[in-house]
Design goal:
The chain has 210 residues and is of the alpha/beta class. 43% of the residues lie in helices and 21% in strands. The chain has a domain of 99 residues: Cupredoxins -  blue copper proteins (Immunoglobulin-like), CATH 2.60.40.420. Strand 2 and strand 3 form a beta hairpin. InterPro entries: BlueCu_1 (IPR000923), Cupredoxin (IPR008972), ET_Amicyanin (IPR052721), Halocyanin (IPR017533), TAT_signal_bac_arc (IPR019546).
């Protein structure tokens, strides 16, 4: 083959090789776009996780701030419920249970959450009469479960949650805030004093040199 033709042929082949490399770079760019799409899908997955519902607090009826609250005995369609079944009150609150006359005889007796306790703090008689009342005053914080002992199978249960007021907690926050500001001011004053001391030392050094 003629030498000049050989050189020309070699140059064309090299140019074709460069073009092929550039084309390969375009393919890599396409792969990068696909990766971005995958990231978008990941964001969607995170959004779904945000829909998770938080747990409930026991569905207590908040009756704090009242000296006395009332609970119906023999509520519901069949008369085998307490209403409201779960109440939240302050220490010293009196709970008054009032019979509706539905669902035959009922009583109110402290339980451990599943059955009556051997030595209950409070216990009424078995009564069916409408308008009958039984009261108990809860002095100490805690959760007190109770049942109708003859209708446990019908899930006739209730609970009284006695909680302390939260006023003291707010006062504590105010104290923490004041203390924090005082600490910041002290740090700032200490920093200024340090700078002043540094200036005096510099001045003294200058006089000695002279």
């Amino acid at each position: 083959m003629d030498r000049r033709k050989f050189v020309k042929f070699t140059g064309v082949a090299a140019a074709a090789g460069v073009t092929g490399c550039l084309g390969g770079g375009g393919d890599d760019g396409g792969d990068g776009n696909e990766t971005d799409d995958g990231g978008d899908n990941g964001d969607g997955g995170n959004g779904g996780g945000g829909d998770t519902t938080a747990g409930q607090d026991g569905n207590y009826s908040d009756m704090t701030g009242q000296g006395e609250v009332e609970v119906d005995v023999g509520a519901g369609p069949s008369g085998y419920k307490f209403d409201p079944a779960d109440v939240r009150v302050d220490p010293g609150t009196t709970v008054r249970w009032v019979w509706t006359g539905r669902g035959s005889q009922h009583n109110v007796v402290q339980s451990d959450g599943t059955e009556t306790v051997s030595d209950p703090m409070f216990e009424s008689e078995l009564v069916a009469t409408e308008g009958n009342e039984f009261t108990y005053t809860f002095e100490e914080s805690g959760t007190y479960d109770y049942v109708c002992s003859v209708h446990l199978a019908q899930d006739m249960v209730g609970s009284v949650e006695v909680v302390e007021g939260e006023g003291g907690g707010d006062g504590g926050n105010e104290t923490d805030t004041d203390t924090g500001n005082g600490g910041m001011n002290g740090d700032m004053n200490g920093t200024d004093g340090g700078n002043g001391g540094g200036n005096e030392s510099d001045g003294g050094s200058g006089n000695e040199s002279m």
